[in-house]
Amino acid sequence: MKKIVVITGAGTGVGYQVSLSLLEGNNEIHVVAIGRRSEKLNTLKSAHPGRVSVVAVDIATEEGRNYIVTELSSFPKIDYLIHAAATIKPLVKIKDLSLQGWRHAIQTNVESPLFLTQLLLHKCDHSRVLFFSSETPVKAVIGASTYCISKAGLQLVYESFKAEVPSEKAVFAMISPGLVDTPMQEEIRQTDPVVLPAATELSLLYRENKLLPVSIVSGFVRWVLLDVSDEEFSSAIWNIYDTSHQSRWM
C-alpha cells in the first residue's frame, strides 16, 4: 500500500520541490498536493500519473480546510503531513501594520497548520507531521514583524501537539530550512530596504550565489521525513545548517 503524503504549499518554492523529491525518490508514495496555484499542482500530477491528487484551495480559510478534509475522505490514513505553506506578507514596519494584513498572515501561518492538523488527526496512525520554521531561534526582524510573530506562534503550535498527542498516533517535528532561493526570497529582495533593512544583505547573498538551492533543502526535508527514527524525528527543531547531521543526508 502506498504511503500517503499530504503537503500544503505544494504549488511553489520548497513545497513544490519537496513534492518532486518524494515522488521521484520513492514509487510507493502518493502525494496529495495542496495549494492555490492549480497550474503547478497539475504539472506534478501530469508528471506522475496516478500518484498525485490535487487540491487547489486557500488553506487560510475555514471553508478551504473543510474542503481538504472532504477531498481526503477516500484515504483511510495519512502517513505524512507537511505544512510548507506560508506567507511573508505584509512586509511593513510594525507602526504601519494593518489589522487585515495581520489577520491574513496569522490565518495562513498559524491558524491553518493548527486547525488542519486538528482536523486530520483522526487519519493519523503512527504518522509524522512536519512544520516549517524560519530560523532557530525565531527573532524579530525589522519590517517583517508579522512573519516573525507567526513563526514564533507556529513553534508553540508544534510543541503543543507534541506534548498532547500520543506518539503512537503521530510524532511531530519542526524544520528550519535556512535561506532558500525561492519566490518568497525574491519578494523580500524587492522590498524597500528602508522598510526591510535585511533586503540589502539578502540581495548581496543572492548575487553571490549564497542562498541555498531548493534541491538541497528538499533533500534535507526528505531525509528528515523518511529516514530518521521516530524518536530522533521529534527530538529537536531540525536546522539545515547544523553540521552534526549533514554527512547523513548531503
Layout of helices and strands:
Elements: E1 3-8, H1 13-25, E2 29-35, H2 38-47, E3 52-56, H3 62-71, E4 78-83, H4 99-120, E5 124-132, H5 145-164, E6 170-176, H6 183-189, H7 198-207, H8 214-226, H9 230-233, E7 237-239
Parallel strand pairs: 1-2, 1-4, 2-3, 4-5, 5-6, 6-7
CATH fold title: Rossmann fold
Principal-axis shape: globular
CATH architecture label name: 3-Layer(aba) Sandwich
Uncertain runs: none
The CATH H-level superfamily is NAD(P)-binding Rossmann-like Domain
Sheet with the most strands, sense and barrel status: 7 strands, parallel
> How many H/I helices?
9
User: What is the CATH domain class?
Assistant: Alpha Beta
Spatial separation of the terminal alpha carbons: 29 Å
Number of strands: 7
Mean pLDDT: 95
Order of helices and strands: EHEHEHEHEHEHHHHE
Q: What gyration radius follows from the Cα positions, in whole Å? A: 17 Å
Please list the strands of the largest sheet in the order they lie side by side. 3-2-1-4-5-6-7
Helix content: 40-55%
Pfam family, one: adh_short
GO molecular function: oxidoreductase activity
Protein name: SDR family NAD(P)-dependent oxidoreductase
Keywords: Oxidoreductase
